[in-house]
Specification:
Layout: E1 3-5, E2 10-12, H1 13-17, H2 25-37, H3 41-67, H4 75-104, H5 112-146, H6 155-162, H7 164-183, H8 189-204, H9 213-239, H10 242-246, H11 250-276, H12 293-311, H13 314-324, H14 329-341
Antiparallel strand pairs: 1-2
This protein binds protoporphyrin IX containing FE.
Protoporphyrin IX containing FE binds at residues 118-119, 122-123, 125-126, 129, 175, 178-179, 182-183, 223, 226-227, 229-230, 233, 268, 271-272, 275, 293-294, 297.
Length: 342
């Protein structure tokens, strides 16, 4: 090992060969300054070596950066959200805009920016929320079927389970937009014109009171449920921020994400069911033989909630708890058969 003493720094040439490129350019520039003061040929060689390392690092890192995946965990949730949004937009536009245009020559295109969008948003939001809890149910079913927690889940289920946080955050995003769109309904000029027209028709019919008791209750209940549902989703979103989740114990985190999450899903589903009210039995809702959007919206959440209720039955719950504590169905049978033979 050859050591040379410079004016300001001691340079170890062998170790210099193994200097790894660092991302801290501040340190490197300090080193360069030190070396510029040193006038030995070795120092000059080391300086040019460093320069090469320096630029090499930038070339390499920019290449690596280009190769790096952008938001890898968001790919699946974003794709699913985009596909559902697109399909729902087409579906709702056909029912609410194209159908009146074709059958009655009625121009309802004004509905697209707010009313149609505000049918797409809640459907996507509640479906994504159901997709947060569906893999947990599938995983429980898988464990019940295989009788052990040591068997690996299929890869697609693993991937889905790992992106539940992103599904939940996207659901929250869509729900917030839906709340904003809903709350601006009365501000719209189309709404004011419709209100005036209703009032005028009422005067013509000599009706003094337009109050419909069950409609009033319907709206009070579903808006209130929507607000509470959104508040719970906000809590879930806050609890998923790393700094907040790290301050919680596993049990607290699990309690919030699981129990409160299911409660949010239940409230949002009831919100949609109460919104629909007696439209469930109204055949006029089936335009071109297609079901209304609220039926599509509540389908998956109801399936998830029903499956959860089934899994909460004592026979299934106890078995899942045992499996998750390490009990294995096959081993147990084997052990029982060995014991009985002895
Ligand atoms: C502040 C909170 C909320 C308010 C004010 C609100 C308000 C509304 C309103 C006014 C409608 C009727 C929309 C229409 O006339 O087309 C509606 C429908 C609906 N909302 Fe909400 N909502 C809220 C939160 C939520 C949340 C958190 C979810 C679920 C994630 C949700 C899911 C739904 C669904 C599925 C429908 C039925 C949409 C359809 O198919 O027509 N809402 N909500």
């Amino acid at each position: 090992m050859e050591k040379r003493e410079g004016d300001n720094c001691t340079i170890d040439l062998n170790t210099a060969q193994s200097i790894k490129p660092r991302r801290n350019t501040g340190n490197l520039s300090n080193l360069n300054m030190d070396m510029q003061v040193t006038s030995t040929p070795e120092a000059a060689a080391l300086f040019s070596l460093h320069q090469a390392h320096h630029f090499g690092e930038f070339e390499c890192s920019s290449e690596q950066h280009c190769k790096q995946d952008l938001f890898p965990k968001w790919h699946l949730p974003m794709k699913i959200a985009s596909v559902i949004s697109f399909l729902m937009f087409i579906y709702t536009s056909l029912r609410d805009v194209i159908y009146p245009f074709i059958t009655r020559k009625e121009n309802a295109f004004y509905k697209i920016p707010i009313l149609i969008i505000n049918k797409v948003l809640p459907v996507v939001s509640i479906t994504l929320l159901a997709l947060v809890y569906l893999p947990g149910i599938l995983a429980a079913g898988f464990q019940l079927y295989s009788g052990t927690k040591y068997k690996r889940f299929p890869q697609w289920l693993d991937r889905w389970m790992l992106s539940r946080k992103q599904f939940g955050l996207l659901s929250f995003f869509f729900a917030t937009m839906h709340a904003c769109y809903s709350l601006c309904y009365p501000m719209r000029r189309s709404y004011r014109y419709k209100l005036m027209n209703w009032a005028f028709q009422q005067i013509k019919q000599k009706k003094e009171n337009a109050w419909i008791e069950h409609d009033v209750w319907r709206m009070e209940i579903y808006v209130s449920l929507g607000i509470v549902g959104l508040a719970l989703l906000t809590l879930l979103a806050i609890a998923s921020i790393p700094s907040v989740s790290h301050s919680l114990t596993w049990r607290e985190f699990h309690y919030i994400q699981s129990k409160m999450g299911y409660l949010a899903l239940l409230l949002c589903t009831v919100h949609a069911l109460v919104f629909a009210w007696n439209k469930w039995v109204d055949v006029n809702q089936f335009i071109w033989y297609t079901p209304p959007s609220f039926m599509i919206a509540v389908f998956l959440p109801i399936v998830v909630l029903l499956c959860k209720c089934i899994l909460l039955l004592p026979c299934f719950r106890r078995r899942i708890q045992k499996i998750r504590c390490g009990w294995e169905a096959n081993t147990q049978t084997n052990q029982t058969s060995i014991t009985s033979r002895l």
